Amino acid sequence: MNLELFNYFFKREIKDKYLGNIAGISWVFIQPIITLTIYWIVFDKIFGQRIPEAEEIGFIVYLALGFWPWMAFSEAVVRSITMVTDKKDLIGKIDVDFKIPVVASISASFSLNIIGYIVVLIGLVLFANKFYYLNLPLLIIPIIQLYVLAIALGLFLASLQVFIRDTLQFMTTIMTLWFFMTPIIYSESILPDGYKTIIQFNPIYTPITFIHKALIMDSSLPWYQMGVLSFSILIFLFFSIKIFNKLSPSFDEYI
Amino acid sequence: MSTLIKIKNIAKTYPNINTAGNRMKSLFLLLFNKKLVGGNSVLKDINLKIIKGESLAIIGKNGAGKSTLLKIICGVIKSTSGSISVTGKIGALLELGSGFHPEYTGRENLKMSAALAGLPRKNLDSKITKMIEFADIGEYIDQPVKNYSSGMVVRLGFSIVTVTNPDILITDEVLAVGDTDFQRKCIAWIDSYLKNGGTLLLVSHSIYHVQKLCKHAIWLENGRIKKQGDSFAVSQEYQSFYEKSEGDVVVSGDKDITNYHIDDLRILNVNLDETPLIDTYEDLIIKVKVFSPDGRAPGMALGIVRKDIPIYGTISETHKAKPTKISLHHFEYTIKFKNLKLLPADYTVKAHAMDPECLRLIDDVEKPLRVHSKTTDMGVVELDSEWS
């Protein structure tokens, strides 16, 4: 039954978000490409940003590799925050576990963005020089880490939003900050030393760096950090689910 | 005799959440398992059992907590404390179109409801077709629910229940909506459902349906159970409780007790016994005690009304009536209707105190009067006639 419900909410998310628009599903590809192009023009052509660790590769390749996973994560999280409060028409009328629409929405966002990412990766394999395409299967690990982290964060925020309505506004600001704390549009080598240590506390730093190192850099992969991160994400998920379960019986009283 | 639903000590309190600060506080209290204080108690000390094959009715005034209790039973909202155990599948018809997404078509909503009801994928399409057939709303099935009339929404909601065939069917007055044609279809379905061992949990204001369909009943008043037991006993006590309070002397407005006013209105029969029941052709005697602040005899207006239609109205001045002084500040009027010509019905006797000059009506006191008789004549009043 839960699987059926999940399918139902999953399809609804995709329909609601993409199929209603004129551009439809092609928006999944078009929007990141447009943003990517803008960033490239601004940071590569105008500011002349360079990636010391990957000189031959070109800035845009480096940017694309980190950009799509970030989009998948941030979009999924922000969208999930209002997943419960949006379902006002169901709360108090239907007996459903509200974790399901939250997870379904995150899954829908992720799926669509990752499809776009795969298209980008294929393009990079074909056209980029010095691209370690044999390491591509390894990307499953950071992608799954980002997915599970998004679920843990989404569940927590969605339940919080019911009580504290500023959560959404707060998080959209946090997301902007978070973006700049992740080496997507810059490489960490250009950061001053103090900053270098700070950004390592960003949980997304590790998976994104892993992707860069696996595909376009000649350096060893940070397996230890990946392991620690995976463990931490699971602990966060555990507490997130507990908090959601503790708050959800009272949703109808605060909605 | 299996128990389908068992409820122990259920309570529901809605917290104070008017300020952001209150919400934050409640959030932390909830997270750390502390009890919340205050708020609005909507249900308290609810204990009940529903047994398979023995339908239960919940009756009570509006706002007594009936719908809230139903929602808790359906699992749609959670109680603040207490426990509930449910064995078997619940099918609910609660509130018009509950759970329907207005932007989606009827067909899409049926699919969602089927998913929420846990219908297996196998044969799902044929089940949806059956629902559409029962609902019988033509091409509207593929239009957004927001365009539906309330009757169509009920049809859609009911059709789901006919296919999911629950162990216990919960409904609250929803069958009051919907055209007579569909109501007949529903009643027929409910009838066969009950004959086949189904159990009904009904919230209704219709004492007739409560007594006809349910074995047990509970009477909810202000969120607490006032009485529970056999549906006839409970519903009759409920009815007479509310009828009795209507029979008391009704005084409108704020009485100014320093001014002329009516202290008592009594309806008496020929033996001077107080009674609300008089036979046609009997003598009807009305005694009205009036207060006078200055010792002067106040005037009085008397009216007899049937369902707001005035039958007869008169004032003391017309009859040059002088009341009897019974104490320093009190007078009493006695009005005798000999050989009452009023025909059987429920009337209201109204009396109004007036100033001694009979210029203003000051207050308003009423009492019900029921007229009885063995005559087959109909109407309000008997007219003298000679037949040949």
Report on this model:
The complex is a heterodimer of chains A (255) and B (388). Chain A has 255 residues and is mainly alpha-helical. Chain A contains eleven helices and no strands. The longest helix of chain A has 29 residues, at 99-127. Chain A is globular. With 388 residues, chain B is an alpha/beta fold. Helices cover 26% and strands 33% of the residues of chain B. Chain B contains eight helices and 19 strands. Chain B has helices spanning 20-31, 66-74, 106-116, 124-135, 150-164, 180-195, 207-213, 231-247, and strands at 3-14, 40-51, 56-59, 81-86, 90-93, 168-172, 199-203, 216-221, 224-230, 250-251, 261-268, 277-279, 284-291, 299-306, 309-315, 324-327, 330-337, 345-354, 365-372. Chain B starts with a strand and ends in a 16-residue tail after the last strand.
List the helices and strands and how they pair.
The complex is a heterodimer of chains A (255) and B (388).
Chain A: H1 2-19, H2 27-46, H3 59-81, H4 83-86, H5 99-127, H6 140-163, H7 167-180, H8 193-199, H9 205-216, H10 223-247, H11 251-254
Chain B: E1 3-14, H1 20-31, E2 40-51, E3 56-59, H2 66-74, E4 81-86, E5 90-93, H3 106-116, H4 124-135, H5 150-164, E6 168-172, H6 180-195, E7 199-203, H7 207-213, E8 216-221, E9 224-230, H8 231-247, E10 250-251, E11 261-268, E12 277-279, E13 284-291, E14 299-306, E15 309-315, E16 324-327, E17 330-337, E18 345-354, E19 365-372
Parallel strand pairs in B: 3-7, 3-8, 5-6, 6-7, 12-19
Antiparallel strand pairs in B: 1-2, 1-4, 8-9, 10-19, 11-13, 13-17, 14-15, 14-18, 16-17, 18-19
Helix pairs in contact in B: 3-4, 3-5, 4-5
